[in-house]
Design goal:
The complex is a heterodimer. Chain A is α+β, with helices and mostly antiparallel strands. Chain A is built from ten helices and 18 strands. Chain A is elongated, with a radius of gyration of 24 Å. The two termini of chain A are 34 Å apart. Chain B contains 14 helices and no strands. The relative contact order of chain B is 0.11. Chain B is globular and about 65 Å long. Chain B is mainly α. Classes of the chains: A alpha+beta, B mainly alpha. At the A-B interface, β6 and α4 of A face α10 and α11 of B.
Chain lengths: 338, 301
Amino acid sequence: MIHVHNLDIKLGIFEIKNVNLRIAKGEFLVLLGPSAAGKSVILESIAGLIPISKGKILVNNRDVTYLKPEKRNISICYQDYNLFPHLSVRDNICYGLRFKKDKHCVKYSKNFKTLIKLLELEEILDRLPLNLSGGEQQRVSLARGLIGNPDVLLLDEPLSSLDPNIKWTIQEELKTIHQTMHTTIIMVTHDFTEANYLADKVALIYNGEIVQQGTIEDIFQCPQSIFAAQFTGIKNMFWLSKDKELKSFGLKQPAYIGIRPENIYIHHRPLRTYYQYQGRINSFKNNGIYMEIELSTADTKRNYISYLTLNRFFELKLKKDISIHFGFNKKDLIVIRP
Amino acid sequence: MLKFLALSFTKIYSIYNKNLDIFLFIEYKLGRNRLFGSRPEIIYIIAAITGIIILLFNVFPIINTFYWTDSETLIKTLFDREVIASIWLSVKCASITTIIAFLLGIPLAYYLARHEFRLKALIESLIDIPMVIPHTVAGICLLTVLSPRSIVGQFLEQNNIETLGTEIGIVIAMLFVSMPLLIDAAKVAFKWVPTRIENVSRSLGANQVQTFFRITFVLSWRGILSGMIITWARAISEFGAVIILAYHPMVAPTLIYERFTTYGMKYAIPANIILIIISIIIFIVLRLISLGGKEKYDSRS
């Protein structure tokens, strides 16, 4: 179990304040946030690579706050792989073992075999890192981090510099590894889909602070801040303050309401949704698997964004500037109180 | 002068326009990017011309000395004990200097490559100071420290360590002028090794010293080695500071200077040639070691 307690870090003018994390053994935590939010800094401070100014880090009830990185039994993998270029793949993977007291223990050779098999590294064991593709390098880096049974594996955007196909494969492999080896993993990413796929728990970070923590479901269904809402893909956010509007949405005090683009329905005829509007299509963008449509209403003067599958879009024969009916249901409404 | 240059440029350019064939050939040899059409880029033409001037300027004076003597005196000088002793002394002192500079300079270079702090720029300039001082001036500065009137000189005298006019003096003079080169080269070499790769090594259980020797040093040794070659070359070519601290025993440059001032060109040149040959041979051998061992993982060279 890992417990990060009231962690403060100062790096020049950048500050990280009051980080509290609690990760159960074998759990997969994703630190999610936009770039420059301080995610990697938190990760490196857990590894002991950046000094902290306040707080405590406990790993399996062992206080590691002031231990050197090599004494913590926490390994880290970076986005840019950082394999040791002068060592073969095999030597890279086994690098950490030579510093272990029980280096000839059977569990490590067992780990080696498992990892090689899971990550399909058998054929490249004797090659040098320079001759490997990005995906292969990241696999080696994962194997290297995992072989010594670390208490925690830290992953700093491990999938960000891979091309999409490889990314999916490695993402799946990462999940399989996590399920077979039961390692506690903390991963940093800015990609919500990665978090969706991998995380048991998510901590949302913004401007050096944790804004929300919980399961993916929690954050997806009840975001507690505008940032969280926007980050999880709620494109339609409106500030309501007028009494009339508040009443129509069943609210008493001014608040934000949000609605996911995929929950807005469009048709030529009036719909049977709880909230209904008449408007027109301002513009649309083809995003490959869905169509992003910008709608505007005549009466409330608001712009909405809606997603439709391409098929549906062509079926409805939608065009720019045509008049349209759209609406959404009450259950899809997300209310955020400031 | 400017007019002459301008004229010659226009002339070269007109020749170049008329005789495209020749220039295209030169250009082809220079590896021109063919995307830019059939005309060679003017900058490359200028580079070729200035390059030839520079190479001639470097190599011609050295080759020219060979015409000033005959093989008989050359062979005679080769067995001249004084010459051999002085060259040996030069090589020995330069090598000792390089080793000392290495031992003293590497830790500091590593620290400077890895840390940012307030007075860093000042410290870096202090390290480089010997490079901007004329070497005779540097020699006199060192002399004031080593003379019995200073604290250091007194301490050395009490412990019966003689520096002036000994090999120690020579090494001190060489060290003073050549150490900055090693520190700078090592610093650049260390900066090439990403901090993250060290972080990974630490997180895998290697302490800082183990990480340094297993990763950082292995990945930067080529840069450090070429820094050592430059340091060695600078040390063996040092003259100004050396003669002030130790005229005797004579290192090769001192010997050549003495022969030149007392007997003239005729006697200086054979020793000159031998020193040139030996220096170049050692330089080439070291360069080959540092380049020839080019390993596959070094993507930057």
